[in-house]
Specification:
single chain; mainly beta; two-stranded antiparallel sheet; two-stranded antiparallel ribbon
Amino acid sequence: MISCAQGPQWEDLFNGKDLEGWEKLNGTAEYKVEEGSIVGISQLSTPNTFLATTGTYDDFILEFEFKVDEGLN
C-alpha cells in the first residue's frame, strides 16, 4: 500500500484583476488595481484606512511585497 499525503494548497487572496473578496474599513483612502497590483491612495488629514479580506483565515503564512511612498510611515 502506497500512501501520498498532500499538504494544504496555497490560496491566493488577490486575483490580480479586481478587489473581489476585499473590503475597505475606516478612513477615506482609495484602493484600486493597476497592472495586477493593489494600489492605495491616502488622503491627508483623515483616519487610517484598511483593506481587509472578506474571508476568515487561520493557521496561515502571509507573503507579500509592498512599496511605500517616502512621505508615508
